[in-house]
Amino acid sequence: MANSTKPSPDDDKANSTAFARLRSTLRLLYHGQSPKAQRFQAAVLVVDLSIIAFFVAAPLLRDSESFLWIDYSIAALLAADLVARALASTDVRRWLKQLPVIIDIFILATLLAPTWLLNLGFLRVLRLWTLTRSGAIWRPLRKRGFGGYQETIQAVINLLVFLFVVTGFVYTAFAHRDAGISGYVDALYFTVATMTTTGFGDITLPGTFGKLVSIIIMIIGISLFVRLAQLIFRPAKVVFPCPQCGLTKHDPDAVHCKACGHVLNIPDHGED
């Protein structure tokens, strides 16, 4: 007489219930506003920032004996986070199509195969950009009254991401190739000098390809600097949708909407 190993309907129902409960818990932790969820999101944010610090320092740490151990440990953390976020999403297929998620998956691949994908490892710093696409980093700032600086902070982050991505590319493509770049710091120095159009000329990228890269760095770099300067020096705006026309940004002391003239009643949080 053969023993049946087929799970019973009750077992299937219990497993389904447990899985649904797990997804619900993760959804509350990643997207909730409770004190427990906020502590969890703060912990995830600290881990993310630590990972980004490793990515920035990776070119300098690559020759150390502990590099691979740290690399694979971060890969495990990132994989667990991706799985948890997938379970917390309401539509996994739609979630997988988001650009930040695609970038995170690519970063995970570079962590799992650091030797094979070494030439593109500099793209790991894009993790900083994907982090700013989520609300986890902005919700605490809004609660502390820094919501009006979100665009400025985002502009700074965009500039830093571009700086380190370009530095990694220059280091990978031109180091030790008659460009005067013998290390990561040289590549960083060249990138900053080119972005600011200072152009000291002590380090230049060889050939037509090098000139094209320099032109692209200058154009995009100046654009990012101009954008950041605009956000820093122009008057700060507050987010308050006009009830009549829907214009969302106004001067903090605005009485009427600039678009339609509707009377506004913008709350003053200065005493909070």
- Number of helical elements: 10
- Radius of gyration based on Cα positions: 24 Å
> Distance N terminus to C terminus?
75 Å
Any low-confidence stretches, pLDDT <50, length ≥5? Answer: none
The H/E string reads HHHHHHHHHHEE
* Fraction of residues in H or I helices: 55-70%
Number of domains: 3
Q: What structural class do you assign from the helix and strand content? A: mainly alpha
Average pLDDT number = 81
- Tertiary shape: flat
Biggest sheet, strands in spatial order?
1-2
Fraction in beta strands? under 5%
What's the total count of β strands? 2
The largest β sheet comes out as: 2 strands, antiparallel
Structure description:
With 272 residues, the protein is mostly helical. It folds into 3 domains: 17-142; 146-234, Orthogonal Bundle (Helix Hairpins), CATH 1.10.287; 237-272. Helices cover 61% and strands 1% of the residues. The protein contains 10 helices and 2 strands. Strands 1-2 form a two-stranded antiparallel ribbon. Helix 5 packs antiparallel against helix 6 (126-132) and helix 6 (126-132) packs antiparallel against helix 8. It is found in: Membrane. Keywords: Ion channel, Ion transport, Membrane, Transmembrane, Transmembrane helix, Transport. This is Voltage-gated potassium channel.
Question: Which SSEs are present, and which pair or pack?
Answer:
Elements: H1 9-31, H2 35-61, H3 67-88, H4 92-96, H5 99-112, H6 126-132, H7 139-143, H8 150-174, H9 184-195, H10 207-233, E1 238-239, E2 249-250
Antiparallel strand pairs: 1-2
GO molecular function, one term: voltage-gated potassium channel activity
Domain Potassium channel: 161-232
GO cellular component, one term: voltage-gated potassium channel complex
